[in-house]
Every structure is written in structure tokens, then in C-alpha cells.
Write a structure and sequence with these properties.
The structure is a homotetramer. Chain A is of the alpha/beta class. Chain A is built from 11 helices and 14 strands. Chain A has a 9-stranded mixed sheet. A 5-stranded parallel sheet of chain A has the order 2-1-3-4-5, sandwiched between helices. In chain A, strand 1 (5-10), helix 1 (18-27) and strand 2 (32-38) form a beta-alpha-beta unit. The longest helix of chain A is centred in the last third of the chain and has 20 residues, at 322-341. Chains in contact: A-B, A-C, A-D, B-C, B-D, C-D. Chain C binds chain D through residues 2-4, 17, 20-21, 23-24, 27-30, 34, 51, 53-54, 169, 171, 261-264, 280-284, 299, 301-302, 313-324, and chain D through 2-4, 17, 20-21, 23-24, 27-30, 34, 51-54, 169, 171, 261-264, 280-284, 299, 301-302, 313-324. Strand 13 of chain B pairs antiparallel with strand 13 of chain D, so a sheet runs across the interface.
Chain lengths: 380, 380, 380, 380
């Protein structure tokens, strides 16, 4: 009999941003319930977080090893089906590995691992595990992003020539990491964030989006990175040139110090027949432009959408946002997992997996290498 | 010990729009779980809907009377705490009355009742019941609407002079109700919708918004209503002039036949010091304008917000939408109810209740009366 | 041999807003040169203004009577061809009458006269004079307004059902007329402005636009006018319901006290097949919406325009503004006049004339009458 | 006695785009009159163009040498004061040189010359001539661009860190140059355009804008240029990284093949205190963003502008466009020239001159060099 999926969470204690987002995203479509968690680094804190989430104390664990082992022992009809990993980057690999190896499916935040080597190793682990794995490149969950992708795939834009992408934030314009801001603190710390600062935090979303929409891999890049914040070690701003497959070119600007910008992630894709533009802060519109026809504006639930883009939950004009897009990643993962549980197969599930995660790490490493060499071209 | 609230639902079977919205809105903040429902007019259909929602069969009821009576008999730690009523308008009053009289709290969709008499009666029932009651004027749940309200309340705009509101949809531009569209069908049917068509469906949201933001009651109106769709009985378009308390004036345009409009609900409020503009389709911005200062754009999570407006769940630049705004009505209701259960009191809970519901019906009736008399002035 | 047209100006001395606009509008297309003027109420001031415009002193007159009489005596190849009248409203009728009766063509600012009686009389005078006459309802000069009109005329929108128009300004939100602001002062003075304040200043533009785009006359109106500014006599805000020919309905909101609004003139027209939206502050876009197709955005110089709308002077993406739209009224008038001079005829010249001027006065008078009678319906 | 300035024109015959723009721009402010021209390559065509402009036949010359020599012989009170040069790029240097050396002031379109060597030589010629010289980087004429520049100069944004600029057009997305389109034809022809295609046509505007607003010179660039159009020799698309003075970084994307884009020139400048964003297609707004304050939107004629930005001709809300911005370059040049004629001096005239022109050529040459070397860094 069909049932809700049971989710355990690693990380995401009280005050966490992304943990809360994962929970809301998992909850909105009524397919998943949170049943347990190792929310914090101590049992006490973890229990406090769990209680606030109305979890029973015995399902709040002091660390992820304990959670995985104890849940494993619970009866099948009680124990979690999958783990959501929402810790800082340096804590992605080990919990993921252990969860997979103990038979649990995994949803992991991005970037998929702390180092490139971990990502390479994880690819093998995922494949050998036979378990489902998703990495939450959540911006691919917006209906209008899916429409852009479908338009490219169907040839509406013709051959892709040019991609322009920006991901601009301003919250690091001042020394926010010195004000006790937890989420800022780990992001600027190479021991928790990895070799990329803004690279791993936001540029990898931009990199993933280029490939998701165009279907073209990045072959070569130049990266001119900057660390504007005094005392910082990692990049908080970057300008990149990219060469894609089939002669397409791309350009990327990302920043955490772009004062006053909130989450200005935007992409423009130009083919030889048409073009599309999408802005994350105005996500319910897709601007399309054409050689001989008027500009058109597509909307979720509106006219002329491809089936892949019909993921909006409510009628046209009722805006969906960030949580809903995130939820669509969960929904597609959950749909896949429910099918697996029921012994069914599903065609091309539409959520990012280990391949996308590995590409992200390769991108980060190539960018850092290019930048170290005065922004020379580096092949990916 | 704190626990999630248990919700039962009346209406909202498979294929329902608003029932699904209520469930998602109730689910997003992890405070409420759906435990039972009388989703459809037959037990069979109700069970089918319930199963798709992963409910046990014995909590899927064939009608609301059965649900209320049987839930009443369940142990206190199992039975539903409150009922969400998401049926067409003619089915609001009786389930609400019965639920309240059997000790259940109620969340009801708008307009609160089918007739004005019912609304008047319901006001007394709610007051006598001692139970909580919310009517889902959901657009008041947007953070930037709350900011607008707080700005008026704090005198930032000075004395309110002028309000301009529109609520434009286009889905009834063609004879959609003749195409088997269930949600269209009941809306054009006076036996299920009431004496107002667009009036009850959308204009009452506009009416509620005027009062919610300005704090001013509507005193007098002129309504020039039109039925453009052939064969329709109820209004599908309307133009209204309104006189508010304290000499303020308002103007309203609503339509269900405004071709190509999706859900273009927008309000502009002008005081003698400043003004605000808010557009439902771009809900994460509040445009403010001033005598001697530059225009400003406020955003959820951004700078210069009043505490009442800080209801956004995620950082600035991560758009929230319709479901989140709807969820805020549920969250505020749930917070109030949780406090009640724990014997606590809460100051001025911010969700619409029977007073707002009754005002809505008075508005609908006055509009119809004005229109019948060649759009003469009618006092409310 | 073709030559530039020679323009004389009445009003528009140094510091004038609208006189300067007329001169720039007349000058931009290189078809008209300013040759003389009675710019101010004294010869001295008039000469000062004329000198600043590089006019010879002997073509700067102390009053309009002198100008008309003296220019009449000049050789045909020297004297002005037409007069531009840019005085306050109470000074429109007499100069126009005298100019026409002395053989000069006339371009006059709106509203066409001070009183309705004058407008009625002027209609006869214009017809009898055999001279060309234009009234500068300048907003009709925007390319995208012409496109909207052509789309309606060609049936693209189907039968027109609903029109929504706003014209919002904020410069009278404070007592600006008491600060020595000349342009404000005459506008609030019934002796110079007429019986309408905002009505004659801005609402008549909105009234003209409704008819220009839809081709439908206004048959009946309700007007709820307000005077918010202390000590003012005339309306500075108004809300109107309008019934048009063929069962169409319209609604109008105008204001001079809408704090922070600059010149927010906007119109939406809904037919049974499609709709258009145009905003004066973003004039180079026409938003169109459809039953079964995506929204489209048309631009001057872009794809899919009607010939009537191809009045943009420069390629797509190079914005034209208020002066260019104003200039198009002059250009169409000048083209007509040049044709006349060369003995040619021209089909349906596209500029507003005495008929539009007279409709404007009827609208103002009907609005005032409705308002005096507690906003009852008044036929036009 | 003050008089209008007399302008001669080289190039800009019938059907020319930019010649017409120069004439309108020169005409709008009533300070300049066109008195003569060598509009085309033959006397016959030149006269035809001149007649359409209402010029006497004897002031329409068959080539620029003739014009300069003959005008030189005319009486001082008749002959042209300055020459506007609006020919393709390869025809900038010689007419400019000859005009300056014969005592005429010059306004020249951009890029200032065909080759870098010419630009270097021209710098000396201009300085030695004692004549005024302007190059029409016309986008600097927009009021909100001047406001951005003033804000940087006054330190409002703090130290500049990052600049992001795009200049996107789509008219070369197809092989428009093979369709008999004259303006397209010379632009893709290295013999008339120079070593840069899009570089000289549009990227140099972007380059100039960076320096105009920030006051920072470009020190080093990487350019990855592409020629997408089959059979083309010159670049029609480019992606650049730029390093500016004082550690600031910039990124530039330009294109002539960005399908459906009209003239999407946009710049974002980020300091450590605030940021500004300006879009040429929406030129009457300046978006500003701040660390601790709400976003603000500035408008011409609105509140909080610097004196340098008060160049708008009409009140707030009455849009000005491309022609007006262009006209401001002419106005500032004319104001300077009128002062010179009257023996007055003027402080820092605000129009682009030979220095800006020379920087443009250096930028084009460095970009081409970088691109030839697989996009390596090249110092400017």
C-alpha cells in the first residue's frame, strides 16, 4: 500500500537556513515525513531541535553514525527511507557514504563534496550502492527553467551560441562573518567550505544551470577571482569566460559582495533562432525573443508550455517561489523512490544526481587553478 | 508536550484546486498534519482522495456530518483539532456551524457563507462557541502586504486619501464553464456561488485588502456590474466607487473576463505623506513613494521592515509565493490554537476571522443592490 | 519648392513648461521653424523670451492681437504659417478664433477651450475657416498607442468589453500652488483653468485616450471627485465609471495628489479575443495578452507592427519619449499642412482636432455635473 | 549678439540612421541649425538629401573637401561653425583633420577613427588646432548615467569593486548584411569598419561607459571574441574580463547576434557602500542598492539628484529617450562653443573628446590582440 516516505536529516538544527528549507520543501507535497534526525553536533542540541519539530526524543540522535546504525535496526515499516544531508560542505562525504553503504537513499546539499577526490570516489559509491542519490541544485526545480531546457532540447532556439549568467549576492559586502553569523562563518572558512568560497556556494549553481538548460558541457574556462573582504581567504567574487561544447561560449559573473543584491541569479541563452531569459528573483516568467516574431513572456500555468515545464502546483498568476522549486527536486526524487519501493521503473527522473555533483567539483577546481595562473585557460 | 495540530478537511477531493492549496499551506510549516477528511460527496470518492493523501481508510468519511460525529468520539489524542472547509460557497455555513457546535475549531474558505443572513448568524455562533475561527483571505498573508499595513498603522503614509485596487483574471473570457471545468461550473452557478459571481470569488479579496491595509471601513459604494459571458447569470466584471471612513475614497476594478490576465490583484494606497503599491503577481516587492525622497523598493528579508512584516521564511531574494502567503494564515491560526491548547494567551492574532467574513458578505450584498438600481450609492 | 513651415507662438515665455515642449516637439523633425512669438503678457518679457530663442526683436510681439495683425501684413514668404497656442486654458479661445479668422492655421494645447460654449462655438469657427486645426492630445503620438488603436481597428482584440485607465500624478500632494510655482498656480485657479482642475489637466487626456484607442464614444458617466488640498476650489482627484458605445464599460482613476507618482498614465483595453496594456512611463512597450497564446511584448521598430504604428524615428531598443510623441502630433499636422500648401490632399490625417477638443469639454462638464449630484449618472 | 550655431554635416544622406539622429539631436534644443552638408558620395545624391532637409542647393556639396573649402570662403556670418561627421569609421579621420585644420570645430561619431595610429595622430591635431572636438559617445548623455557618475565621484558608493556591463543586440543574428541593408554592410566590412566589428560598433560604448561612470581607467583585458555569422570576418560577439585601476574588476558581454535583443546596454557598478544599475532600454530609472537601507529608484526630475544629473528637459515622469541623450552631448558641445564665440570660458565641459576617442581605439586594438593570442591578458 502506498505510504509517505520517511526522511531522516543530518544537520539542519535550530537556526539553520538550508535545513529548514529542505524540511519545508520535503513537506509541501505531502509525500514525505520527517521521522528522525541528527540535527546538531551534540545529542542535547539535536534533541532540542527535534522536539521543536515535534519528533519523539528517541529519534533525535547525537550524531549521524548513531542515527544510521540505530535506524538500520528499526523495523522496516518504521525506519527512515532516506537521509537528507544539510551540513556544511566538509560534512557531506562521510555521512553520504555511510548512509548509502547501510542501505539508505540520500539527498545531499551542494556542492556534493568537500574535495574533488571525494566527489570522484562518491560517484563509484553511488553506482555500487544501487541506492538513489540526489544533489540539490534546487534552481533547476523552477518551472520556467524546465521550460527553457525543453525549448533548447526541442530545438526552438536553434543551435546554442551564447550564454550569459550572473549570480549576485551582497551579504558579504561587509565583514558579516565577524558578527557571529553562523552561516557566513563556515562559508568563508576553507576548512568547512573547501577550496572555493563563492565558487562552491553560488557559482556552482550557475555552472549547473548552464548545462541543465543547454545540455552542453563546459570544456574550458578562464577564472579571474577576487577576495574583496579583508582577512578572507576564499573568493567572494569572480568573473569567468567559458567555452562549451559545439562552439558555444559563455560568460559568468558571480559575487557575494555585490552590495544590495539579494539573490540575483539570472541566465540568458541565445541560439541562432531564438533566446530565453530567466531571473530567479522574478521566477514565474520566461522571457523569449525571436528573429521575426514579437517577444513572448511565458508563465507557469500559462499557454504554450512543454509538458516538462508543467510542474507548477497552482494556476497561472499564483506565484510559486524558492521553496516550491526546491520541493520539485524532492518531489521528483520521492516519485522515483516510491516507484522503486513499489518495484516500478521510471523514465529519466528529473533531479540532479552524482554526475552533476561531480561536474560541480571539477568546475570549482578548474576555476581555482585558472585563477592561480593569472586567469589562463584550463580544460575541465 | 507540544505536538502537531491535527486537521480534518471538508471538501478538497482529487482535482480540487483550493483544497490542495489548503493542504500545502497547512503542511509547509510543519505545525499541522492532515488526519482525516470528508473530501467528496460519496464515501467511495472520499476514500479514493484520502488514499492518495496517504490517509487510513477509516479516517475518510462519506460526508461532513459523519466526520464530525465520528471524530468527536475518538480519543482526544487522536481526533482532529480543527476542520478546514474548502467546499463551494453554499457548503460553508452548515459544516462550519456543526463543527463549531461539536467543539472543533474551524478554518473556512471565503466568502465565509452563501448568504448574508448566514454570515450574521455565524458571527453569533462563532462568538458563542468559544472556538477559533479563520476565514482564508489569504492575500493578507504576504509579507509585503503586512508591511503596507504596518506602514499605514505607524503613520508613515500620513492620512489615507485614496485607494486604487484591481483584481483581474481572464479565465472566464470564454465559456469555460461549458467545457467540463468543475471549478468554473460552480462559480457561475448562483445555487452554489451565491448572489455574487466575481464579487464573491475575487472582489471580496479586494474589499478585504482595502480594509486590511488601511484600517478604514467601507461606508458607501456604487457598483456597475456586468455579465459579459453569454448565458451567465452572475457578474463576471465590475467597476466600483467606494467611500471609506475619514473621507478617503477608493476605486475598484475586478474582472474574470480580462483576457490574458492571470491573477492580477494589485493595490495602491495614497496618504498625504507617502504611498505604497503592491502587485500580487510580483509579491516580493513593495513600491513606496514619497513627497521629498526617492522611491524605495522594500523586499521580504530586506532592510527597513516593521516586525509585523517579518514573516518571510527564507532570506531576501529567495521568492516566496502564493502558497507561503496562504500558509501564513494557517501558521498564525495554528500558533493561536497551539497557545490555546497549552493554556496560553496570544495578543491580537493576525488572521482574518468572522468579522472580516461578515464584512465580505455585506459588501457583496451592497454591490448587488447598487447594481440593481443603476449603480446608485448604497451604504454598507 | 518645399520649405520648412513657419510657426508663431502665443504663450510659452521663459520658464514655461509646455511652451518649451511645443518648441522642441516642433523642432525635432526639421519640418518647422519658430519665426515669431507673443510669448508673454508684456512686450518686454516677450522680447526677452524671443531673444533667448534667437528670434529677431521685430518678430517678438507684446500680445497676440499685435502678432496676428502684423504677421498678416508680412510678405507671404516671410510670415508665419500657423500659430501654436500654449497659454493657460482661459486664453485658448480668443487667440485661436482670431488666428483662424485672419487666415492662420492653429495648433492649440488642451483642453481646447475654457468653457463648453467656447468649444461649441470654436467647432463652427474651425469648420468655416477652412484652416487646419490641431489640439495637442499629445499622448496619442506614442507609437505603441497607435499600435493599440490599430489592433482594435483591425479586430485583433475582438469586441471591446472593458477599459481601465489611470492618470496619476503627485505634485499637488502638498500645497505647491502656494510656493510661487507658476504652473501650479494657474491650474488651481478656476479663472484660468475652468470648471475642472485635474479634470481638464489630466483626466481629459485619459478620456481622449479611451476613445482614440477603442474608437468608442463615451455615453454616460458617474464622477466622484475630490478636492484634497486645503483651500483649493477645483478637483485634484477623481474616480469615474464610464459606459461606452456597444455595451463596453470603462473605469477611470486620476489624481494630482497621488504622492510620489510622476506621470503614471496607463490604459488597459480588454476585448473578447485579446487585450493590450500601455504605460506612459514605459512607453516603448505594448503588453498584449491572449486567450490561447503566450503574452507578447511589442516594441517600436520591433516585429509585428501595423503600418500606423511605425512612427518611431530610430531603431528598436533606442527609446523614444514624451517629446517624440508630442512631435508626432506636430509632424502629422505639418505633413498635412505642407500637403495643403502644395495643393495636395492627404487621407485621414492622424492628429486630434476640434472634434476631440469638443468631446473633452463635454466630458469635463458632464463630470462636474455628475459630481454635483452625488455622483449620479450623466449622459454625454 | 547670441545666435544659433551653424552646423555642416559630412555623411548622413537619405536613409542614413545615425546622420538623422545627429540632426534631430542637434535640433531639439534650438541652439543649432543645419546650414550645409556633403551628405553622399556624389553631388547629385547630396543635393537630393539636402533638398529633403530644406537646404538651398548651393550649400549641398558633392564631397567634404569641397564643402570645407567653399564654406571657408563664405562670410563669417554665414558659413558653418562646426562640422558633424557621421560617415562610416574609415571616413572619420580625413574629414576631421581637414575641418580642424581649416578652422572648423568638429563633432565626430565613434569610434573616433579607423585605426589606432589615426587616433594617436588626431589627438595631436586636435590639441594643435585650438578647435573644439567632440566624439559622440552618446549614452553618456542620459541623466541617470550622469547621476551614477556623480554618485561615484561623491563617494556615495564607496570604493568601486566590481563593474558588470552588457551590450546586446540581435540584428546580426541572421545574415542581414546580405540583404541589401546598407548599415549592416559597412559594419561587417573591415575596409570600412576597422579591425573591430562589434568591438567598434558597440563594445566601445560599453568601455567608455565603464570609465565615464567609475572614473577608473582600464589597465588590462582578456577578450574571447567570436564570429558566429558565416562568412563574416569581424567579431559579432565578445566576452571580456577587465582589470581597472585601484583593484577594481569588470566583466563585459557584447553581442550583435543575441537574437531578439534590441539595444540592451546595461551597467551595474558595485562599491563597498552601495551600487547602481542602469539599463539603456529603461533609461529613466537608476536603481540604487545599499548595505543597510532599502533599494531606491531615482528618476530624472525626481528627488535626490546631483546637479550634474539635472539635464532632463521636462518634468519627472515624462520619459526622455535616446535622441534627448544624444542631444545633451550636442547641447554641452554647443554651450561650450557659444561661450568660446562670446569669449567666455566654461568649466569642465561635459562631453566626450579626443581622449575618450583615443581610449576607445586602444581598447579595440588590445581586445583584438588578446583574442588572437587565445584570450591572454593584454595591457592597455
Amino acid at each position: 500500500m502506498p505510504r509517505k516516505l520517511r526522511m531522516g536529516m543530518i544537520g539542519g538544527g535550530l537556526g539553520s537556513f538550508i535545513g529548514d528549507v529542505h524540511r519545508k520543501a520535503a513537506g509541501i507535497d505531502n509525500m514525505i515525513e520527517l521521522v528522525c534526525g541528527a540535527f546538531s553536533s551534540t545529542a542535547e542540541k539535536s534533541i532540542a531541535s527535534g522536539k521543536a519539530l515535534f519528533l519523539p526524543e528517541d529519534r533525535c540522535y547525537g550524531n549521524y553514525e548513531e542515527m544510521i546504525l540505530k535506524e538500520k535496526e528499526l523495523p522496516e515499516e518504521v525506519r527512515m527511507d532516506f537521509v537528507a544531508i544539510v551540513t556544511p560542505n566538509h560534512m557531506h562525504f562521510h555521512p553520504t557514504k555511510m548512509a548509502l553503504e547501510h542501505g539508505f537513499h540520500v539527498v545531499c546539499d551542494k556542492p556534493v563534496t568537500f574535495t574533488l577526490d571525494e566527489a570522484i570516489e562518491l560517484e563509484t559509491i553511488v553506482k555500487n550502492s544501487g541506492k538513489l542519490f540526489a544533489v540539490t541544485y534546487n534552481y533547476t526545480g523552477y518551472p520556467m527553467v524546465k521550460q527553457a531546457r525543453a525549448m533548447v532540447a526541442n530545438g526552438d532556439l536553434g543551435n546554442i551560441r551564447k550564454v550569459q549568467v550572473q549570480y549576485l549576492q551582497g551579504w558579504f559586502a561587509t565583514a558579516v562573518e565577524q558578527t557571529g553569523h553562523k552561516q557566513a562563518a563556515w562559508r568563508v572558512d576553507p576548512k568547512r567550505s573547501g577550496i572555493g568560497g563563492g565558487l562552491g556556494d553560488i557559482a556552482t549553481h550557475a555552472e549547473n544551470m548552464i548545462t541543465y538548460i543547454t545540455g552542453l558541457n563546459i570544456e574550458e574556462i578562464v577564472a579571474d577571482l577576487t577576495t574583496f573582504g579583508k582577512g578572507r581567504i576564499l573568493d567572494d567574487d569572480g568573473h569567468l569566460l567559458l567555452r562549451l561544447e559545439k562552439g558555444a561560449k559563455a560568460i559568468m559573473s558571480y559575487s557575494q559582495i555585490a552590495v544590495g543584491e539579494e539573490n540575483s541569479f539570472a541566465i540568458r541563452v541565445y541560439g541562432d533562432k531564438g533566446s530565453v531569459e530567466w531571473l530567479q528573483e522574478e521566477p514565474n516568467k520566461l522571457f523569449t525573443r525571436w528573429v521575426d516574431e514579437p517577444k513572448r513572456v511565458l508563465t507557469p500555468g500559462g499557454n504554450d508550455l512543454y509538458p516538462e515545464a508543467i510542474t507548477h502546483r497552482i494556476p497561472a498568476g499564483h506565484p510559486e517561489g524558492y521553496i516550491e522549486a526546491f520541493a520539485t527536486v524532492y518531489k521528483n526524487f520521492a516519485t522515483h523512490l516510491m516507484a522503486e519501493i513499489q518495484g516500478k521503473t521510471i523514465d529519466k527522473p528529473d533531479y540532479p544526481s552524482i554526475e552533476e555533483g561531480l561536474k560541480g567539483l571539477k568546475f570549482i577546481y578548474a576555476s581555482v587553478e585558472s585563477n592561480k595562473n593569472n586567469a589562463k585557460w584550463v580544460k575541465i
